[in-house]
Write a structure and sequence with these properties.
Number of helices: 6
Order of helices and strands: HHHHHH
Helix content: 55-70%
Largest sheet: none
Protein backbone atom coordinates (compact mmCIF):
# COMPACT_ATOMS: atom_id res chain seq x y z
CA UNK A 1 0.00 0.00 0.00
CA UNK A 2 2.75 2.41 0.92
CA UNK A 3 4.68 1.84 -2.32
CA UNK A 4 1.58 2.59 -4.41
CA UNK A 5 1.07 5.87 -2.51
CA UNK A 6 4.67 6.78 -3.11
CA UNK A 7 4.30 6.00 -6.81
CA UNK A 8 1.15 8.15 -7.15
CA UNK A 9 2.79 10.91 -5.17
CA UNK A 10 4.75 11.82 -8.30
CA UNK A 11 1.61 12.35 -10.38
CA UNK A 12 0.95 15.91 -9.19
CA UNK A 13 4.51 17.18 -9.74
CA UNK A 14 4.58 15.50 -13.14
CA UNK A 15 1.24 17.09 -14.03
CA UNK A 16 2.45 20.53 -12.94
CA UNK A 17 5.63 20.22 -15.00
CA UNK A 18 3.62 19.03 -18.00
CA UNK A 19 1.14 21.89 -17.72
CA UNK A 20 3.99 24.39 -17.41
CA UNK A 21 5.08 23.48 -20.95
CA UNK A 22 1.82 24.74 -22.49
CA UNK A 23 2.51 28.55 -22.38
CA UNK A 24 5.77 28.26 -24.35
CA UNK A 25 3.93 26.27 -27.01
CA UNK A 26 1.24 28.96 -27.09
CA UNK A 27 4.00 31.52 -27.78
CA UNK A 28 4.99 29.56 -30.90
CA UNK A 29 1.34 29.37 -31.95
CA UNK A 30 0.87 33.10 -31.30
CA UNK A 31 3.94 34.00 -33.35
CA UNK A 32 2.68 31.79 -36.17
CA UNK A 33 -0.76 33.42 -35.99
CA UNK A 34 0.84 36.85 -36.12
CA UNK A 35 2.87 35.88 -39.18
CA UNK A 36 -0.21 34.40 -40.83
CA UNK A 37 -2.24 37.54 -40.20
CA UNK A 38 0.33 39.99 -41.54
CA UNK A 39 2.58 37.96 -43.85
CA UNK A 40 0.38 35.15 -45.17
CA UNK A 41 2.65 34.11 -48.04
CA UNK A 42 5.75 33.71 -45.93
CA UNK A 43 4.13 32.81 -42.62
CA UNK A 44 4.81 29.10 -42.91
CA UNK A 45 8.50 29.55 -43.63
CA UNK A 46 8.93 32.19 -40.92
CA UNK A 47 7.11 30.06 -38.35
CA UNK A 48 9.34 27.07 -39.09
CA UNK A 49 12.43 29.28 -38.89
CA UNK A 50 11.39 30.59 -35.47
CA UNK A 51 10.61 27.11 -34.16
CA UNK A 52 13.81 25.70 -35.63
CA UNK A 53 15.91 28.45 -34.10
CA UNK A 54 14.37 27.86 -30.68
CA UNK A 55 15.12 24.14 -30.99
CA UNK A 56 18.69 24.75 -32.15
CA UNK A 57 19.33 27.14 -29.25
CA UNK A 58 17.96 24.50 -26.85
CA UNK A 59 20.19 21.82 -28.37
CA UNK A 60 23.25 24.08 -28.18
CA UNK A 61 22.47 24.78 -24.52
CA UNK A 62 22.12 21.06 -23.83
CA UNK A 63 25.54 20.51 -25.45
CA UNK A 64 27.02 23.31 -23.36
CA UNK A 65 27.80 25.53 -26.35
CA UNK A 66 25.67 28.48 -25.23
CA UNK A 67 24.94 29.96 -21.82
CA UNK A 68 21.64 30.11 -19.99
CA UNK A 69 21.27 33.79 -20.94
CA UNK A 70 21.13 32.76 -24.63
CA UNK A 71 18.54 30.08 -23.87
CA UNK A 72 16.37 32.74 -22.23
CA UNK A 73 15.68 34.16 -25.69
CA UNK A 74 13.38 31.18 -26.23
CA UNK A 75 10.07 30.78 -24.41
CA UNK A 76 11.05 27.27 -23.31
CA UNK A 77 13.63 28.61 -20.85
CA UNK A 78 10.85 29.86 -18.58
CA UNK A 79 9.40 26.37 -18.11
CA UNK A 80 12.59 24.36 -18.48
CA UNK A 81 12.92 20.92 -16.94
CA UNK A 82 16.05 22.03 -15.08
CA UNK A 83 13.99 24.46 -12.97
CA UNK A 84 12.60 22.71 -9.87
CA UNK A 85 8.82 22.85 -9.47
CA UNK A 86 9.00 24.91 -6.30
CA UNK A 87 11.17 27.50 -8.11
CA UNK A 88 9.01 27.66 -11.24
CA UNK A 89 7.81 31.24 -11.60
CA UNK A 90 4.07 31.56 -12.07
CA UNK A 91 4.50 35.20 -13.11
CA UNK A 92 6.73 34.25 -16.03
CA UNK A 93 4.21 31.61 -17.16
CA UNK A 94 1.40 34.16 -16.91
CA UNK A 95 3.57 36.60 -18.86
CA UNK A 96 4.02 33.98 -21.58
CA UNK A 97 0.26 33.45 -21.71
CA UNK A 98 -0.32 37.20 -22.00
CA UNK A 99 2.36 37.56 -24.67
CA UNK A 100 0.90 34.69 -26.68
CA UNK A 101 -2.53 36.36 -26.50
CA UNK A 102 -0.97 39.62 -27.74
CA UNK A 103 0.73 37.83 -30.64
CA UNK A 104 -2.51 36.07 -31.55
CA UNK A 105 -4.47 39.34 -31.29
CA UNK A 106 -2.01 41.11 -33.57
CA UNK A 107 -2.38 38.27 -36.03
CA UNK A 108 -6.17 38.49 -35.88
CA UNK A 109 -6.05 42.23 -36.57
CA UNK A 110 -3.84 41.60 -39.58
CA UNK A 111 -6.10 38.84 -40.82
CA UNK A 112 -9.16 41.06 -40.44
CA UNK A 113 -7.54 43.85 -42.49
CA UNK A 114 -7.10 41.59 -45.50
CA UNK A 115 -9.86 41.75 -48.08
CA UNK A 116 -10.91 38.16 -48.41
CA UNK A 117 -14.13 37.51 -50.26
CA UNK A 118 -16.40 35.25 -48.28
Amino acid sequence: MESSLRRYGTVVPCLIMSLSKIPPVWIIIGISAMFYGWLPRTSSVLSWIILGSFIVIEMFWEAGLVRWSVLQVTPFAYAHYSIPINELSISSLLGLILLSAVFTGIGMVGFKRRSIGV
